[in-house]
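Late entry, written up from scratch paper. The run itself happened at the end of the previous shift, but nothing got recorded in the book at the time, so transcribing now.
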Amino acid sequence: MILVTGATGFVGRHLIDALAARGAPVRALIRPRRGRGPAAWGESVSQIAGTLENTEVLHQAMQGVHTIIHLASAPPWAGPNHLREVDMDGTRSLVTIARSVRIGRFITLSHIGADRASAYTLMRVKGETEEIVRRSGLAYTILRCGMVFGPDDRTINAIAMQLKANPFVLLMPAGGESLVHPLWIDDLVNALLNCLENPDTVDQTLEIGGPEYLTFNQMVRTIMRVTKTPRALVPIQPYWLRQAAWVFRQILPRPIFTSQWYDRIAESRTADLNSMSDRFGIHPQRFEDTILTYMPERRYGREMIRYIFGGEPF
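Output as recorded:
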């Protein structure tokens, strides 16, 4: 039995779809307010409602489980305190109980650039969370990912929403010269599945990304071309964008751009271009080739309104 936390999140939904298609026995930890996961998961996926703070639920969820794939994380609009509570405190609670019930494997996701000494809150919290896992005594695998994207992501689609929101310009932090390493969601899921079967990934921290590096500027221009929303790109100091993000977080239920979002592109963060093929035998998809399959027909203006005011846009 495999326990997946963050089961209804972006990566969690795709992973459980893949596990269910294989007929693998899976238990999905669902946030109580989300009710149940997709009916398409089928009978091989059992579901249990609870949070990482509820130790009784975690004990119940781990009965009969041999592997945990820990994907639960704070949402993009979370403030620093909420980020620490979910990612650090939640992971600490999870590994404590996992150790007590003798879980065999613990697989989790992090970000390229995670570092306890980072100047950026998101990367610092991810670095601290990684250290909790490494010191847990469990047989762990940590996958540090590039910027994961897909039809229902909340990162790349946020750029398309912002382009629709302003018909004239898009503010570009520091000219958009930092390098990003986009990774298609299906390629990430295949890497996670490989980790389940590959003992060489045990007690490893692995950095993975797609087949190309892009500057943030290049990524935005690609999205503008695919969605046919040309805008003037105006360079601005990241400090002012972070200040604006803080203001919007006080006003809107779910702002599109947040401090977490800017932490991801604050510096160039890349893995080896051959990381997926060398480690997993996977030949990842290119950024433009994949967004062409779903972005051109999307109505991002409508999705933006649903996203900001608490609905599920994707």
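The longest strand covers residues 105-111.
(Scratch paper discarded after transcription.)
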